[in-house]
Write a structure and sequence with these properties.
globular; about 200 residues; mainly alpha
Length: about 200
């Protein structure tokens, strides 16, 4: 961003967007939890039922998938760093994998941003849970989740433009793998083949 926004405009961007707007968005993203709390205080509300079990377990599953995706990315980046420093290819990787510069295996073979997809799905899931509990199709508490998802999507477009400029094969990866939600090929078990990708 510093290259695109210079001088006093960058300071304004930092104060307005990074320091203020993003913090307000983080506060707003938990509004559905407030609605859930209010609904739990209403007369006749149950402590827990099947719907709560489904929503809560679904959110835990999304968190686990996000954690696995983050771990796969971290492991790849550590291996790439080690390879660049020592020239030795760490176990579980190939030279082509590390020369490519970005991860394409594991969950990253099905989505270019599986961690981002799960993160956004978690907050949208909490919002849907609040809608269900408040017997509404939609309510005010979803505003934070919508803004949060918009920030993520904008950030994803920006970071992908950097990756496409930095890594020659990234554009091919973009054509083969969906940005967030796995495509039909992923659902039927067809893993995309990006040049130099390690076969698991």
């Amino acid at each position: 961003m510093r290259r695109k926004i210079r001088g006093p405009l960058y300071t304004l961007f930092n104060l307005g967007f990074v320091a203020l707007f993003q913090n307000l968005t983080l506060m707003a993203v938990v509004w559905p939890a407030y609605v859930l709390t209010l609904c739990s205080q209403l007369p006749g509300s149950t402590d827990s039922d099947l719907v709560d079990v489904i929503f809560s377990r679904g959110l835990v599953i999304l968190l686990c998938i996000e954690t696995i995706a983050d771990q796969q990315q971290w492991r790849y980046q550590q291996a790439k760093k080690s390879y660049r420093e020592t020239g030795a290819v760490p176990d579980g990787f190939t030279k082509d994998d590390l020369d490519r510069g970005f991860v394409v295996s594991g969950l990253w073979a099905f989505s270019r941003h599986p961690n981002f997809a799960c993160e956004q799905a978690i907050w949208l899931g909490v919002y849907q849970w609040a809608c269900f509990r408040s017997d509404t199709m939609y309510n005010w508490s979803g505003l934070g989740a919508m803004v949060y998802c918009s920030i993520f999507l904008g950030s994803t477009v920006f970071t992908e433009s950097i990756s496409a400029a930095k890594y020659p094969e990234y554009k091919e990866y973009q054509q083969l793998v969906n940005k967030l939600v796995p495509g039909l090929g992923a659902l039927v078990g067809k893993e995309p083949e990006v040049k130099g990708a390690k076969k698991d």
